[in-house]
Amino acid sequence: MINWNDMRFVLAIVREGTLSAAGRSLGVDQTTVTRRLAALEEGLNARLFDRRDGRLIPTPAGEEVITRAERAEVELAALERDVAGRDTKPGGLVRMTSVPTLSNRLLAPRVGLLFETYPDIDLDLIAEPATLSVTRREADIALRLTRPTEDGMIARRLGAIRYAPYARSDLADRVDGAEGRRGAGDADLAWITYEESFAAIPQAKWIAKEGKEPLSPLRVNDGEPILQAVLAGLGRSLLPVFVGEAEPGLTRLSDPVTSRDVWLVVHPHVRRSARIDAVVGWIDGIFAELKKAGAVA
What InterPro entries is this protein classified in (predicted)? Predict the structure, then answer.
């Protein structure tokens, strides 16, 4: 009978190219790899690799074994995901990714409620401007600010984050009139916006169209440095209402002027998991709270 563990060694050899590299990838020494390969070849009564120029090249028999082993690897991974998704008690690790503004300003301050309700859940909250792949299981759950495009993923729109112009409270009287300009005085408080590669996002488009001069020489690629720059008195900008209203040192200059959709993405193989349901329910509760407060449409 073929031992699946021996197949792991075959796949490591073909992927790494040498016995020593295969051993390093598996956390064993070269002697162990050689022994396991020899045992498999003896059991199959077939040579699986030829050595050429210091590398191991699969024989025709080896190619057949590799094809079957890769197929089995995929099936076993799918089985593991399916079984892991059928737990009944919320517990275990959930990996969740989102942009820093949502992770830092929306999720992290409210994660205590999740742990209080579900003490057996562990949460990896990964704040990344780049998009981690739910498809490749880099994360179980993702919150996205663009409509998901991955095939086969479960996606649902949570709502639209509302953005309004804010300035530091002691500077708010330096802006005038309508559309983000409050009170009397000269409109000399600069608009802080995004760098060029983010010009298509709703906040940057609104500032480019509606925000009057001057523009700040500072341009950024994330909402957190915009918040810090506004708090430092470097200018005014559009902030999520849930962020601006939580900062006592800021004043909102008008009603919300634009919005941005938020999407929840879940891998289908864990959608039935109690731990995933628990985290998704926690997220839904947060957005229900924000809708009630007028911060999300």
Answer: LysR-type_TF_proteobact-type (IPR058163), LysR_HTH_N (IPR000847), LysR_subst-bd (IPR005119), WH-like_DNA-bd_sf (IPR036388), WH_DNA-bd_sf (IPR036390)
Domains and CATH numbers, the chain: 4-84 (1.10.10.10), 88-297 (3.40.190.290)
pLDDT of residue 129: 58
Q: How many whole angstroms separate alpha carbon 244 and alpha carbon 238?
A: 9
Burial class (CB in 10 A: 0-12, 13-18, 19+), 56: buried
Instruction: Give the chain's end-to-end CA distance (angstroms, integer).
Output: 60
Q: Is residue 130 predicted with pLDDT exceeding 60? A: no
pLDDT at 180 over 70: no
Q: Residue 289: which H helix or E strand, with range?
A: helix 274-293
Residue 149 has pLDDT above 90, yes or no: no
Strands 141-144 and 258-266: what pairing?
A: antiparallel
Does the pTM of the predicted model rise above 0.85? no
- CA distances (Å), 256 to each of 119, 142, 172, 203, 222, in order? 37, 26, 16, 11, 19
Per-residue tokens: 155: 């996606």
Tokens 């409050």 -> residue? 182
- Of 35-49, 65-79, 182-196, the poorest mean pLDDT is in 182-196
What mean pLDDT value characterizes the chain? 85
Report CA dihedral (241, 247, 252, 258) to the nearest 10 degrees: -20
| Spatial CB neighbours of 276, under 8 Å, sequence gap ≥ 6 | 85, 94, 140, 141, 266, 270
